Amino acid sequence: MTDDAFLADARELVRTGLGRRAREHSGVSLEEMAAAVGVSVVELMAWELGEREPRGDAARDYVRVLRGLSNRP
């Protein structure tokens, strides 16, 4: 997947609220997700509230972590 595709996916997950719902459904805290993605809790909260958009490596890592959560038993 290209960086542009990861960025588009990350922004769609944030815009629709699917990323937050997936995180919460999996029982992953803001703190745990922020650490896994490499951003601050404040940054992740801003994404999930629609105040900022994911960028760069953090956007890619956000998509990868969420995909990993959806593959957990």
TrEMBL record:
<dbReference type="InterPro" id="IPR010982">
    <property type="entry name" value="Lambda_DNA-bd_dom_sf"/>
</dbReference>
<dbReference type="InterPro" id="IPR001387">
    <property type="entry name" value="Cro/C1-type_HTH"/>
</dbReference>
<dbReference type="Pfam" id="PF01381">
    <property type="entry name" value="HTH_3"/>
</dbReference>
<protein>
    <submittedName>
        <fullName>Helix-turn-helix domain-containing protein</fullName>
    </submittedName>
</protein>
<feature type="domain" description="HTH cro/C1-type">
    <location>
        <begin position="20"/>
        <end position="66"/>
    </location>
</feature>
